[in-house]
């Protein structure tokens, strides 16, 4: 998987957290990874017998995604506090779940992940917002992240 695919899958699992407790996330990870494998089989038209254990998505990628999601979930109080400080008129408890998940991921990448340059995190967050958010989401996310990035 490339970085964009890893980020998108991280976002999707992080979004899932909005509907499940932290304790339930282990099962959600398992189900999500199984669905990723199924999608990959469909894309590649690979027919694999039920006995087969061949995985189309490397274990390391799956492990990396789950690890990132867990780190973000653990940091949600700190992340939400930072977002709340710059989101004029909007607090995290009022934001759409898609937009909030994108903001959390982007903030984590900007402030807590040395692997991702801040500008890349912002650009990728806006791309996710265009794909998954409401019509106003890209501008909203860009505005919040611009304020966070200046801090």
From TrEMBL:
Gene3D superfamilies associated with the record: NusB-like (1.10.940.10)
Swiss-Prot/TrEMBL keywords: RNA-binding, Transcription, Transcription antitermination, Transcription regulation
Pfam family name, one: NusB
Residue ranges occupied by any NusB/RsmB/TIM44 domain in the UniProt entry: 31-148
Keyword RNA-binding (UniProt): yes
InterPro entries in the cross-refs: NusB-like_sf, NusB_fam, NusB_RsmB_TIM44
Entry superkingdom: Bacteria
Protein function: Involved in transcription antitermination. Required for transcription of ribosomal RNA (rRNA) genes. Binds specifically to the boxA antiterminator sequence of the ribosomal RNA (rrn) operons.
NCBIfam families: nusB
Similarity comment text for this entry: Belongs to the NusB family.
The protein, known as: Transcription antitermination protein NusB
Native source organism of the sequence: Eubacterium album
């Amino acid at each position: 998987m490339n970085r964009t695919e890893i980020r998108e899958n991280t976002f999707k699992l992080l979004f899932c957290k909005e509907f499940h407790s932290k304790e339930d996330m282990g099962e959600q990870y398992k189900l999500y990874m199984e669905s990723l494998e199924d999608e990959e089989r469909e894309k590649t038209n690979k027919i694999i017998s039920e006995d087969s254990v061949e995985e189309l998505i490397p274990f390391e990628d799956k492990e990396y995604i789950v690890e990132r999601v867990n780190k973000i979930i653990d940091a949600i109080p700190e992340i939400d506090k930072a977002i709340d400080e710059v989101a004029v008129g909007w607090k995290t408890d009022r934001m759409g779940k898609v937009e909030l998940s994108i903001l959390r991921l982007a903030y984590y990448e900007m402030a807590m992940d040395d692997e991702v340059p801040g500008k890349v995190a912002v650009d990728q967050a806006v791309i996710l917002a265009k794909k998954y958010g409401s019509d106003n989401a890209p501008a909203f996310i860009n505005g919040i992240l611009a304020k966070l990035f200046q801090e």
